[in-house]
């Protein structure tokens, strides 16, 4: 189990930096269909009457536990095939760790937006988008559990202490999506404009897994014995792996689940001048009226994916155990591990398995955007993103607030999210 946790953490923090989640792109007036990610109503306000996107990529990683010392950080060196990472601690780990008592959080988002297109016709705009996403989130992980994952059970400074932890979880999911966006300018009064937009997404789940812990009360007595006085937890998984012989991929369906997603948004613009009444015969003749400022409000990533293929839900309902020789635990596959744990807590290797389907919600969030046209090609944007948990088991993104100076021209642009 320790090796699995370490592998997950190392994968998550391979690029251990705070990235800007495309905040320099999605708020641009040239964002086109990509702008629907932050607010679906934005596409009808684009400077582009038509947009075709081939591929856009985003990598975002953040954590407050593992890190590389500044003096050892060499980004381009790490990207080489024969990269050598620094070594820390007794086990020569690639990352050092913080030793404070704060709750630990990890979030990783890899997103590829595939072939997509957008078109504006008058007060209406339409977009079709495709994409692939992978998200891993760990929330409120107790510091001592993070330390045990890093150091192993042989961590004497945490022996013989009664830890009683509540409400923490970890979840991961990989999926594809196809989205249809519609935006409409529903009000124009002199130099005031209101638009609304909606994106409906069909979701195709490739894999998913989670652990949700309501309570765990335990003492680590030594490097091989754990007295678990109580655990109230749920574990779910639906993976492209044969749980009995580790074959990857398994011989089941490629997509293990499906669902729907929804984004909603509204945008107000204060225009620099009144509206043009000029008629046009071609889409490319549509006039663009610039704004002094715009304000957007949106709720993004509403929805969930239900996994029914190769899915298991294990429940540990306020059970306890005195687990000796835990350091010698041997298992050869996921089936062996789940049965061993169930037998330890219930005396029955199959008792913990309660269902053959699981559901994981998307990382829903409320977003507020303000964009000010400072001077000619200069803009200043501020975006606020706040996570919302809409399902019992959910991916959770971090809160974010940014200020982004942006310089826009027709053929090039740059932005600096802070």
Structure, described:
The protein is mostly beta strands and 418 residues long. The protein has one domain. Helices cover 9% and strands 50% of the residues. The chain contains 4 helices and 19 strands. It has a 17-stranded antiparallel β-sheet that branches. A two-stranded antiparallel ribbon has the order 3-4. A hairpin with a 4-residue loop joins β18 and β19. The protein starts with a helix and ends with a strand.
Which properties best describe this structure?
single chain; 418 residues; mainly beta; 17-stranded antiparallel sheet; two-stranded antiparallel sheet; 4 helices; 19 strands; disordered N terminus
Summarize the structure.
The chain has 418 residues and is mostly beta strands.
Number of β-strand runs: 19
Global mean pLDDT:
90
Q: Helicity level, as a percent range?
A: under 10%
The run of helices and strands is: HEEEHEEEEHEEEEEEHEEEEEE
Please tally the helical runs, counting DSSP H or I stretches of 4 or more residues. Answer: 4
Cα gyration radius (Å)? 25 Å
Number of domains: 1
Biggest beta sheet summary: 17 strands, antiparallel
Task: Quote the beta fraction.
Answer: over 45%
Which parts are unreliable, with pLDDT below 50 for 5 consecutive residues or more?
A: 1-19
Distance between the termini: 38 Å
Q: Please state the structural category.
A: mainly beta
What is the overall silhouette? elongated
